[in-house]
Request: fold
Amino acid sequence: MLGPLLLFLFILILVVGYYRQTILSYFPSVNRRYQRLPAVFSSNSFHNDIENGLTSETFDLEQNIIDGDSRPGLEDSEEIKRIMKTDNVTFDQARLIRQQRKFKTNNIDPQTGLPKDPKLVTFS
Reply:
């Protein structure tokens, strides 16, 4: 009675192991290991960013438009808008929160900007 169950589990583990890449491709969080370059794949523009409220006195996008900047717009503007909405913060605060989160994921101290790597050697 226990033999067929163990055989079934063994075969199931082998099949899942063999097809794991195909199975994992159906989950978007696993599929986003690396982010695509926004300059190549983004349809965003500085005009759209200004319309969405992604500008301030300290980060003026209108000057980019006046200067004829050909870049496609802000990087990760969707994430900044989501932070503004969920945390109820201004554009500048949302940019700061996003940058601090990005530092944390890359093992960098958000306060000092220095890597947290214990093997780090700096020369001053």
